[in-house]
Design brief:
It is built from one helix and four strands; from the N terminus they run ββββα. It is of the alpha+beta class and 77 residues long. The chain has one domain. A hairpin with a 2-residue loop joins strand 1 and strand 2.
């Protein structure tokens, strides 16, 4: 079972995103950002700081890739 230990908000491209950090029974940490019910960015690390840094570093890439997919989908229609 995961336990929520930290939450923060990050502004990217004019939008606010929440990052939640959980600790697991094995001592590892997991960072999660929910884009939608079926779309969650998840990264892990040995510490809260490592998981948070990975999430903050990869969140812009994840956001851009989702926007590209949305644009391509609209063009295909």
């Amino acid at each position: 079972m995961e336990t929520l230990i930290y939450s923060c908000q990050v502004e990217l491209q004019g939008e606010m995103f929440e990052i939640h950090i959980f600790t697991r029974p094995d001592g590892r940490h997991t960072a999660k950002t929910v884009f939608s019910a079926n779309d969650v960015l998840i990264n892990d690390g040995q510490s809260l700081d490592e998981a948070l840094e990975r999430q903050q570093r990869l969140l812009p890439l994840a956001l851009n890739s989702r926007r590209i997919l949305t644009t391509k989908s609209k063009i295909a229609q």
